[in-house]
Design goal:
The structure is a homotrimer. In chain A, 66% of the residues lie in helices and 1% in strands. The first copy, chain A, is mostly helical. Chain A has one domain (60-415, 425-468): Orthogonal Bundle (Ammonium transporter fold), CATH 1.10.3430.10. A two-stranded parallel ribbon of chain A has the order 1-2. The two termini of chain A are 36 Å apart. In chain A, 62% of the residues are buried. Chains in contact: A-B, A-C, B-C. Chains B and C meet through helix 3, helix 9, helix 10, helix 13 and helix 15 of B and helix 2, strand 1, helix 3, helix 4 and helix 5 of C. Chains A, B, C: Keywords: Membrane, Transmembrane, Transmembrane helix. Chains A, B, C: It comes from Photinus pyralis.
């Protein structure tokens, strides 16, 4: 082993000295070194995160046995363990956790020969991103000892943050190495946390379901990256016969769709409480139901032959969850949620049917999963609805809840009333000013996402990051040992299969050189 | 687009004027119009539901920010947000939600070429039915402003109601268009809500797990519809080679089975509280465990070759959950739950092995998923067990809980005792009278289900509803764009495949005409 | 039917009289009788369990309507139904339930022709084991009437106990009949309960996530059985082409992996409360995240071609959950959990890559799922970490929590302080003594597991237990009616297929005879 490592290291050093001219090594040797380095980079990234965690994290008081409040009886000022945050959040945290790992993971298995990568890279990427998000989110919320106090809320917020990266991954699915995804994710989470801090603390915007901060960010960031990756016309013109589904892969993808759909109410309601949580669950449930029906209907109406298209069913049925996200805990009324779902479902299917082909051919932005239709447009719609709701929000409709949803609308001096919670001191904003800030957050998020995405695209195309060639796209064979299904029943075509296998391998370097020139 | 719509509209008008004589249009054109209209009908149905929701729904007080109780501190009479119903129900609601969409959806994917329709139509139908059930359930519980107050309880009850429709869908799986399912569902939910109101408010019957109101209703309603659909001998004689499973489709179906089985305790316990909920979880857990073991054993004993039959494992392992449903929160004792599970498991497997072939050949009722064995007979069994338990229920065994389970058994005058909850004023029924009412509910539900099912069968066979021909049964190709799996590796048989594809399409009209004559 | 039963009974009697010499019966007849008897044994086992349940189980007070505490108002000393244990445990119980039935079940579907058996036998075995575990766990906790009071806690503990058996099943996957698994499980649960009682009550050891009592026990017990099953060189030398995965079966297995991974925090936190539960969730979440990343990295580094190996991704990503189990509620600090995850992930992948082939070839122990790498070594690691944490645990770090985690460390006389919970009277153990006991529990569990496993191996190879021949390993055809996938499209090879089918059947008796000699 150590010998092999030394040999590989030597080869890498050798390769670096020659600055990208691989002439002395054969192609399989180069690929071998690349894959080996990718593993090392991954391990190294985990160790870096560990160092940060050592330096910055502690348990939050209600998870910390060394905090005396957990020992002292409540009547003497201790915590009431019956109301430990683990009780309040565990349930919804676990639902969101399912969305991130099973939902997103299986949703992306629709490609016929990219199932291992879809569910596997989603797993790997999310597992890294939740650690990194705990840090990035935490840096904006350090305690007095400049430490990040970890609680179940941190885990929930980390899961939510990682969703942004997985959405971006959806735009790029099959076109990147996992190292490119990793580098992208590391940048994106940092941008995500900063933008959310800006939106929540400076613009004081309400976005319960993260439609602006998560969905708009994730979608347009990913599209920005994809624009850079595919701007090379030659690359996108390569006919790739693997970019399609099979009957079985489409059914695996439905596992993802259904689990995302079922647990989405928890995603939108997870970070709010009391009647806000209750309302968020009801609104999301209704928006998703009407969105599902509308997506089926519009798919049948606009698809040639008027049959359902699995891409619409797998994705557009979920758009209602995105579109109702920002306003989930606002007083949209049950029918309002249903209208939002109907509009989102129709918008999303029409996006797939009409807009995606245009964006691909005219703007040269390739969007594998169509995240623009599931997260991008519905996310912007959610932002607009949030602004609309903010503009008509009155004390009569929300009472004290108005200041819980939009703290900046609270008066600048405390008022003592027999209210739930302590009085909130705000900025005395009017409804229309708050609506303006809601719009501002959407615009700023959009701009940051696109700019940061494009820059990230150039970064992950730099020669130090492992890349893949267009011929190897949408193919598990590049990164996975595939089951030797011929082994059991040796076929006369065994030799052909091997040739076919090597076909996937060989042209990689050739094209990488093309890209880098 | 608008042009195409106009053209289609013109053709539809044309077709209507001619009253069903399609002579001027070719078959593919007619199918095209039918599929297009189906999409429009779906969209229209969603819009109708929206109108009702606008007219009738409001947030329940504990989900309504405009209700001052959410703002006032509990000591002044406000709601304690820690005990908002979202806290009490969210967990179990979410479990039931998984059963409806992942459980039922994947359970029905066992057919080899009907997986898209199984999980997709289940998704579509349930998404529409939960909205409609919110309305139908709500019409029996209007508040003083003739509005339906929506809470997490409404969502839970809507999910439970939609289960009845999905059970009926199981009997019909593969034999109807999705418009037929939709029409059936709209009628069935209305019948379901009325029957449940009758049973709960007039008969004052206890049915915690809905075995009578959901399972008996769903199964016999579906069988009634199926009787009408298949009464045309010619239709049922058509040899359909697609009515079978594949190795992969059977594994997808096991996802449904396992998720239904795991979350069933929440289904039976969802609408009760405290020690009743605790008992319902324990009883359902035990009944399902013993039912699973028994179903395996009886499958091995009664199947030729004494091997397990996947149909039994996928379905009969769940019968214990149905059979213990009515009595889930009653004092059946742990061993009683186990006995119920054993009887239900054996009954269900024997139903599949012996009864279903008879019902199919003698009564001419085709039951694709065998819902009679999973929901029908175990549901009736549950009703009988409920009556038995009611007949032996005493104050000594239940104390105040007796009146919570059977309010009609409470004395006709209030008694002040240091009890949980406020005193209940009832009808002073005796144990045997209550048992009689329990039996009455089973019989009435059975009759209503069968009659309403048969009537519904005739309705969905009427010419205004999109129908499918027997040749197109159990085939996703009718309603879905299937992945072009040949595209990647063009085969010499590509031409044959196309011919095969068109085979699925062409004969539809021919047979519809046969049916309508 | 009764006629067939009589005939079978006659044949069994006939066979017994002849004492194993099957000369008068043909092989298919013998297999038929064996399979029939297996079904009867299963049914009989369920009835035996029923008898025990009748004799010993009652509802726990907070699930028992006949307990007056559920009727009396809390201010008069009744139970507060808002804090019924169903509220405290339901959520996490349900998560663990998903791990047992969906997690373990689908994890084992990775074999290409053993999916029905993997998910089916897991279902059957677990359904029987949870009932048996309720009894075995309960015998050590009888109430004053020598009854076992059933609560949601009993169900949770039964689920956890069944995990040990499913781990052992992983080592044996594909090599046993389901009757052998059943017999093994019945013995293992009894051993499990005794060992856990010994560890908890006598050694007074803390093991929140059951890494010692569940994972070490399950893995080494299973390896002990496997050693006996495969000690016959001839058997293990049989080349079995079915011991491999397919692309689809690997994706089904990922369902298991992902659901185990997502809900593992609930497994480790399920049986503790308050800040301990909060900490256990955080620690397990972090350990699993870092373990996942590390397993991917180490898989890429150590696998030929530096591609990911699905076996590592499916299994080693979970090792962090095992390794952090014992110390999950201890003050390992967030970074400590991450370190544990990194070590476990690396250890587990290296185990698969390097150790398993050695153990198979040198020690002749075949381990189908590699439970040694996922549960065995990480479980021992967890035990060592638990001992380490115990050795450095002080009152300053844990306050009263120290005595909740390690009751034996509490002083021998009660101290009245304003603490949470009632004062605990312990044995006054020092930190190092407690650490010694933690180590002792690991060693004792290891020894008991190996010895009991080897003995159980001999028991399930005895002629009274239905066995399978090496040629039938990893093959669903032995125990399941497989879908007739040829039926739909009759192929020219139909005749060959039938011959192939009979090939699976015929040699079974031959080899059983070989084994028994």
């Amino acid at each position: 082993m150590i010998k092999r490592l030394q040999k590989n290291m030597y080869e890498i050093a050798f390769q670096i000295r020659r600055e990208g001219s691989y002439t002395s090594l054969t192609r399989p040797e180069i690929r071998n070194i690349e894959q080996f380095s990718a593993g090392l980079i991954l391990l190294f990234a985990q160790l870096i995160v560990l160092v940060f965690l050592i330096a910055f994290t502690v348990y939050a008081p209600d998870a910390d046995a060394s905090d005396l409040h957990n020992t002292i009886h409540p009547v003497y000022g201790g915590f009431d363990q019956k109301f430990n945050r683990i009780v309040k959040y565990h349930n919804l945290f676990q639902d969101v956790h399912v969305m991130i790992f099973a939902g997103f993971g299986f949703l992306m298995t629709f490609l016929r020969k990219y199932g291992f990568s879809a569910v596997g890279f989603n797993f790997l990427l999310a597992a890294m991103m939740i650690q990194w998000a705990i840090l990035c989110n935490g840096f904006f919320n350090l305690d007095e000892n400049t430490k990040i106090p970890l609680s179940i809320e941190s885990l929930l917020k980390a899961d939510v943050a990682s969703a942004a990266v997985l959405i971006s991954m959806g735009a790029l699915l099959g076109k990147t190495s996992y190292i490119q995804l990793l580098v992208m994710g590391v940048i994106e989470i940092a941008v995500f946390s900063s933008n959310m801090y800006l939106g929540s603390e400076f613009f004081k915007v309400s976005d319960a379901g993260g439609s602006i901060f998560v969905h708009v960010m994730g979608a347009y960031f990913g599209l920005g990256v994809s624009y850079v990756l595919c701007r090379n016309k030659k690359g996108s013109e390569v006919q790739n016969t693997l970019e399609g589904s099979s009957y079985t892969s489409d059914l695996f993808a439905m596992i993802g769709t259904i689990f995302l759909w079922m647990f989405w109410p928890s995603f939108n309601a997870g970070e709010v409480e009391g009647d806000d949580r209750h309302r968020a669950v009801i609104n999301t449930y209704l928006a998703l139901a009407s969105c599902c029906v509308t997506a089926f209907a519009v798919s049948a109406i606009f698809t040639p032959g008027h049959k359902f298209d699995m891409v619409h069913i797998q994705n557009s049925t979920l758009a209602g969850g995105v579109a109702v996200g920002t306003a989930a805990n606002m007083m949209v009324q049950p029918y309002g949620a249903v209208i939002i779902g109907i509009v989102a479902g129709a918008l999303s299917v029409l996006g797939y049917a009409k807009l995606t082909p245009l964006i691909n051919s005219k703007l040269n932005i390739h969007d594998t999963c169509g995240v623009h239709n599931l997260h991008g447009m519905p996310g912007v719609l959610a932002g607009l609805i949030g602004a609309l709701m903010a503009s008509i929000a009155t004390e009569d409709t929300y009472h004290h809840g108005l200041y819980e949803i939009w703290p900046a609308r609270a008066p600048t001096t405390a008022q003592h009333t027999p209210e739930v919670g302590s009085p909130i001191i705000g900025d005395g904003r009017s409804a229309s000013v708050q609506a303006g800030y809601q719009l501002l957050a959407v615009v700023v998020t959009l701009l940051i996402a696109i700019i940061a995405g494009v820059i990230t695209g150039f970064i992950i195309l730099s020669p130090v990051v492992t890349r893949i060639s267009p011929e190897n796209r949408y193919d598990d064979a590049l990164s996975w040992h595939l089951p030797d299904e011929e082994h059991a029943e040796p076929s006369p075509y065994a030799h052909d299969t091997e040739l076919n296998g090597s076909k996937h391998e060989s042209p990689s370097v050739l094209v990488i050189e093309e890209i880098s020139h």
